[in-house]
Each structure stands twice: as C-alpha cells, then as structure tokens.
Automatic annotation (TrEMBL):
InterPro entries: ComF/GntX_DNA_util-trans, PRTase-like, PRTase_dom. Residues 177-228 form the Phosphoribosyltransferase domain. Belongs to the ComF/GntX family. It holds the Pfam family Pribosyltran. This is ComF family protein.
Length: 232
C-alpha cells in the first residue's frame, strides 16, 4: 500500500507539480514548501550568534530589548523576496509556519531565547486583516512558538489605526506614521513575561519600535525581536 501511495503521489505531482516557494523548482518527495537546495543556500544572517548584530543596533537608545534577530538577508529580486511576497500576497501562509520553524530551531541555540513566554506577532488592522484573510506575521509566530515550546499570543497587542503604506517614507516619517497605532488589551497577562515580538521584514524598525514602546509599558516585561528578513 505504501508503494502504491508513493506511485500515486508521484503521478499527481507530474500533473500538478508542487513548486518551491523560493526558486520555483519542482519539489520532490520529502520536501515541503521550500526545496532542499534553497533551505541550505538562502542567505542566513546567523544573527542568533551575534548579540550586537545590525538589527539589534537599530534599537539601541530606542528600546530596551534583550536581543534582536532576523533569519535571512533580504535582497530585491532574490529568493527571500519571493518567499515574503507569496506569504503576504499569494495566500501561501504555510510559508510563514515553515520559516518560523527554521527560525525557532536557530533561536533555541541561544540561551537568551530560552525563557520566552509568548511569541507576539505585529498585528494587522482589522480592515487589512479582512482584505488579506490572515496575518502573515502570525503564521511566522506560530512556527517559532511551536519550535520553542511556548505560547503564541495573538489577541493582546492590537492595531487600532489603519495607517498608510510605509513605502518611500523616511525613517522619521515612518515612525511618525506609526505613533499611537498600537495598544495592549490586557497588561496583566504580559506582566513579568519575556515577549518575542515578530514581524516579516525589518528595514528601519519603526513598526517594531512602535509596538515595543507599547509592550514595554507593561510592568516587568522583557522584550526580544525576531523577523523573517533584514532589508538594508
């Protein structure tokens, strides 16, 4: 029966091939969403091994964080951009879970992330969530939380204002665009906890900074940050 199932799977793959979300090569048995070649060759940052990495430096003097991390480098027109585009705009939310699992396995190697209590995704406004149907950062958060063995908190940090796009804005304009956009529903649930705040891409860090400012108002809260990619 197992052999028959494998033949049937191979036959279906010939007619409806599953493609790697990064490079569009056909996936083979045992591969899921991202092909083996891309899993080994995508541009990993290894920031989990570098406490003073460039993402962490973006928040120096702005947020009191424990650590900051990005899984990949983002290059325009590259494979990581393909992944993020399909995750955000093509309905392939499973990409987020897969990348979250990869990131979570890396983060487990750093003791700073050993006591994470909640993984919290940057929220979408309810209008944007209705349009897209899902929050891409939430799927990334789910993958990380499963790998770390902690909870994913998705309904406490909320976006109360629907902001305009951040594209082509300066860092200052981006931050001004994000001021007073987020709020906390229940501070008690987060008090004294180590929170891992996650998003898809970090560029200037203005969105994460705005979220972090609200989170750090909670008594005794410790904050770390993780993203899928860092864009220079």
């Amino acid at each position: 029966m197992q052999l028959l199932g494998n033949y049937l799977s191979d036959f279906v793959s010939l007619i409806f091939p599953q493609l790697c979300a990064a490079c569009s090569a056909s996936l083979v048995n045992g591969e899921d969403v991202i092909c083996t070649d891309c899993r080994y060759n995508l541009p990993l940052t290894n920031f989990h091994q570098q406490p003073d990495n460039i993402v962490a430096q973006q928040f120096w003097g702005k947020l009191n964080i424990e650590a900051a991390y990005a899984l990949y480098y983002f290059n325009k027109g590259g494979k990581v951009q393909n992944l993020v585009h399909q995750l955000k705009y093509e309905g392939m939310h499973k990409i987020g879970n897969v990348l979250g699992d990869i990131a979570g396995r890396q983060l487990k190697q750093n003791p700073i992330f050993a006591d994470i209590d909640y993984v919290v995704p940057v929220p979408l406004h309810k209008k944007r969530l209705k349009e897209r149907g899902y929050n891409q950062s939430e799927h990334f958060a789910e993958g990380i939380s499963t790998a770390l063995g902690c909870k994913c908190e998705t309904d406490n940090l909320v976006r109360t204002v629907a902001t305009k796009t951040q594209t082509h804005k300066s860092r200052f304009a981006r931050f001004e665009n994000m001021k007073d956009v987020f709020s906390i529903v229940s501070s008690d649930r987060l008090a004294g906890k180590h929170i891992l705040l996650v998003d898809d891409i970090v560029t200037t860090g203005s969105t994460l900074e705005a979220c972090g400012i609200e989170l750090l108002k909670v008594l005794g809260l410790k904050l770390s940050i993780a993203t899928i990619a860092y864009a220079e």
